[in-house]
Amino acid sequence: MPIRSALITVMDKAARKAAPRLRRDFNEVDALQVSKKGPADFVSNADRQAEATICEILTHARPDWGLLLEEGGATAGNDPDHRWIVDPLDGTTNFLHGIPHFAISIAAEVRGEVVAGLVYQPLTDESFWAEKGQGAWLQDRRLRVSSRREMTDSLIATGMPFHGHGDQQQYEMIATRIMPEVAGIRRFGAAALDLAWVAAGRFDGYWEAGLQHWDVAAGILLVREAGGFVSDFRGGERMIERAEIVAGNDRIHTRLSRIVATAVK
């Protein structure tokens, strides 16, 4: 049985506190009041309510910490070295279309490094969590990335550009080179869950561009603590700065990175 730290305990508490409202609103998706903040980029009342609930619990537990929120932006705390990174509803478009694939993502950052992260799926009650140096877990089960060694056997996840967002030409160049090499490509529309599923071995690899810090903060730690590798498109550590990511086990990550790097030169 893993021993959960106070950080994981409070993150899990916050996610589970927000989950019932998300489940209720998901079941009444047609009645949601929805506003647009950009082309195909929706924010629902459910999103805002979940963020408020999560932040209330996190702030009560660590009142001096700063916050980086998908909806609320960045708020400095009295402690400049610590902050929470929160995406209260990763997969908003899925949520608003009644597709049951979305998650809450919470990460704890200390002096610029994510040291704990949690991705929680409210509908399946799956809690993926990790702490630096302590491994990655699904509930109380240890996670390991896929052991597949060949691209031809691998299922790869991705995120596609959509109206008003992303580089369509770059995506097509990468996808055209990857598709003939793999068993299949999936686009499920929730980056945090994609990375959690890489950590769990459900996906063998993953690539995407145009992501924000809150999309991937917890997921990057999950993959690495599950024995996987994560980089930017050029094999470096500038995932957040470049808003691009490649993930997988050692063999699949290496092969994916080479394909992606060649395509974006």
Helix-strand blueprint:
Layout: H1 6-27, E1 34-36, E2 42-44, H2 45-61, E3 66-69, E4 73-75, E5 82-90, H3 92-96, E6 103-110, E7 113-121, E8 126-131, E9 135-138, E10 141-142, E11 155-158, H4 168-178, E12 184-186, H5 191-199, E13 205-209, H6 213-225, E14 229-231, H7 239-242, E15 244-248, H8 250-264
Parallel strand pairs: 3-5, 11-12, 11-13
Antiparallel strand pairs: 1-2, 3-4, 5-6, 6-7, 7-8, 8-9, 9-10, 13-15, 14-15
Describe it.
This protein has 265 residues and is of the alpha+beta class. The chain has helices spanning 6-27, 45-61, 92-96, 168-178, 191-199, 213-225, 239-242, 250-264; strands at residues 34-36, 42-44, 66-69, 73-75, 82-90, 103-110, 113-121, 126-131, 135-138, 141-142, 155-158, 184-186, 205-209, 229-231, 244-248. It has eight helices and 15 strands. It is globular. The N and C termini lie far apart (46 Å). Residues 37-42 have low confidence and may be disordered.
Shape: globular
Poorly predicted parts: 37-42
What do the pLDDT scores average to?
91
Using the CA coordinates, give the radius of gyration: 18 Å
Give the helix level as a range of percent.
25-40%
Through-space gap between termini: 46 Å
SSE class: alpha+beta
Strand content: 25-35%
Largest sheet: 8 strands, mixed
Strand segment count: 15
Helix-strand pattern: HEEHEEEHEEEEEEHEHEHEHEH
Strand arrangement across the biggest beta sheet? 4-3-5-6-7-8-9-10
